[in-house]
Amino acid sequence: MHRLLFLQFDKDFTAPTLLRSVFEALLGKDIILLSLHPQLFVIIECIDSDELLDFTHYLDPIMADLEVYFKIFVSDVINDHTMTKERFNWFVHLLPSIWTYTSKHVLTQQELLVPYLTQHLAYQEKEIFISSILKSATSQPALLHTIKKLIEYEGNITLASKKMYMHRNTLQNRIDKFQQMTQKDIRQFSHRLEVYLAIIFLESL
After folding, report:
1. Does the N-terminal or the C-terminal CB of the chain have fewer CB atoms within 10 Å?
2. Are residues 95 and 64 part of one domain?
3. Residues 87 and 132 in one domain
């Protein structure tokens, strides 16, 4: 069993030996390190237990050690080595654009669906969905930002108002305004999903 770690650097990285030593120390095992080009490296990590390291907690210290900025895409565990080449090629094909549609610095394969959908819809298709779902709210970027953050906080008004430093009543007023403009009630899961995707599509135009 193994998984693929794609490291996308913001500039040419010229110290692969250091990169190898940092990740081998972090993972506690030998790794296979490949350089696809000076800004894209791939680590093949052999998996010998059920415990998988979550790189979200380690990214800042790693970047401090390497004195460089990068993002990591983490594949699922691959059980059949005959699938490795197919998965590898698919991920390489997606990598140039997936970071455009997410603010995450560590992206797992399970989190790839929204960036993937965003990438594969044509401009006109996105516009159709956006106008159908968000209607006149497309002209209210601050309102859409509030609604997006609320959805990311699972619709929890109390939590969202604290995180956004916004009075609960102010947030509720914005929710009511959004519902009047779109007829979308984000208390309903299907509405939250539609609205969130539409906002993501809008941000990608």
Report:
1. C
2. yes
3. no
Q: Rounded to whole angstroms, how far apart are CA atoms 159 and 174? A: 15
Alpha helices in 44-167 (DSSP H): 59-66, 84-98, 113-120, 123-134, 141-152, 157-163
Same domain for 39 and 79, yes or no, is yes
The residues pairing with 9 across neighbouring beta strands, listed in sequence order, are: 70
Same domain? For 82 and 151 the reply is no
pLDDT digits 0-9 by tens, 188-197? 999 999 999 9
What is the per-residue pLDDT across 139-190, written as a single tens digit (0 to 9) for each? 999 999 999 999 999 899 999 999 999 999 999 999 999 999 999 999 999 9
**34 with 18, same domain?**
yes
Q: Which domain holds residue 145?
A: 121-204
Residue 78 and residue 7 share a domain: yes
27, two tokens: 């993972």
Whole-angstrom Cα distance, residue 185 to residue 158?
Answer: 17
The domain tally of the chain equals 2
Does the pTM surpass 0.90? The reply is no
Identity at 91, one-letter amino acid code = F
Query: For residue 22, which of 39, 98, 38, 13 has the smallest C-alpha distance?
Result: 13
Residue by residue, DSSP assigns 7-30 as EEESS----HHHHHHHHHHHHTS-
